[in-house]
Amino acid sequence: MTSSPDPVEGIQRRLDRERTARHEAENIAERVTADFYRVNAELESLNESLKEFIAVTAHDLRGPLTAILGMASTLSKRWPDLPTETRAQFLSTIERQGKRLARLIDDLLTASTIEAGALETVADVVPIRDAMAELMSGFNDRSEEIRCVADDVDAVVDRDHLQRILTNYVRNALTYGSPPIEVLTRDAGSWVQIEVRDCGEGVPEELVPRLFGKFVRGASSHEKGGTGLGLSIVRGLAHANGGETWYEQNQPTGSCFGVRLRKRVAA
């Protein structure tokens, strides 16, 4: 004879299932709520970054553009009346501001490409001594302030990206630091390590943790026209090539900006 189901046991099982379902629903609700607040915080952060991006970009574009338009207008209206020397000065300023504008636009395009994860890299075997010679050719007018010391070693890196990294570091050292500027390259095991050192005042301590972020600018950057994008681009280019960047104080004074890149290992 089959015994009848215990009604109390059936009720208990049903209560257990309902309790389990309720706990699962509560857990799902908690996860959904947490995800909502996380996404909302990310959107707010993105919105603030976008506002900052638009404000900084508008300000930095307006400066050189205003100078170019103003001087071009003056030259157009008063060309016959202006002394030859003044014309030459105006044209030189227009050229300089035009180059600054082109550099800013290039930085913005590169930064947005890195941010979108769409940066293309071509891994070349680059002799570092050749890279140093190419670097110095871009600073002919200030070459006496720069000293390069390079081991006979090859890096595996996109050639254009390497020049962009080094040029940015050296330009920063010349703009915000003090000579002599040293570009030191050495064989570091499976890596090629490059350091750009200057003898200036160094980076303010409160700025160091955010140094390679976008739109990070100190007081001197505002005075000297820095965009706040250069170092974030350097880090993005280095990461895209499997490398890394860092900053440390130079000794006894100044800054040291470094990049570590993959070294070609002989077969």
Key words describing this protein structure:
267 residues, two-stranded antiparallel ribbon, alpha+beta, 5-stranded mixed β-sheet
What does this structure look like?
The structure is a single chain. The chain is of the alpha+beta class and 267 residues long. β4 and β5 form a beta hairpin. It starts with 6 loop residues before the first helix and ends in a 5-residue tail after the last strand. 21% of the residues are buried. The model has no long low-confidence stretch (mean pLDDT 84).
Quick structural overview:
It is built from 6 helices and 7 strands, in the order ααβαββαββααββ. It has helices spanning 7-78, 84-115, 128-137, 159-176, 219-224, 230-240, and strands at residues 124-127, 146-150, 154-157, 181-188, 191-197, 244-249, 255-262.
Topology at a glance:
Elements: H1 7-78, H2 84-115, E1 124-127, H3 128-137, E2 146-150, E3 154-157, H4 159-176, E4 181-188, E5 191-197, H5 219-224, H6 230-240, E6 244-249, E7 255-262
Parallel strand pairs: 2-4
Antiparallel strand pairs: 1-3, 4-5, 5-7, 6-7
Helix pairs in contact: 1-2, 2-6, 4-6
**Helix fraction by DSSP (H/I, runs of at least 4):** 55-70%
How much strand content do the residues show?
15-25%
* Mean pLDDT value: 84
Unreliable segments of 5+ consecutive residues = none
Radius of gyration: 29 Å
Main-sheet strand order equals: 2-4-5-7-6
Main beta-sheet annotation: 5 strands, mixed
Question: Kindly, what is the distance between the CA atoms of the first and last residues, rounded to a whole number of angstroms?
Answer: 83 Å
According to DSSP, the number of beta strands is 7
Structural class: alpha+beta
Quaternary state, please? single chain
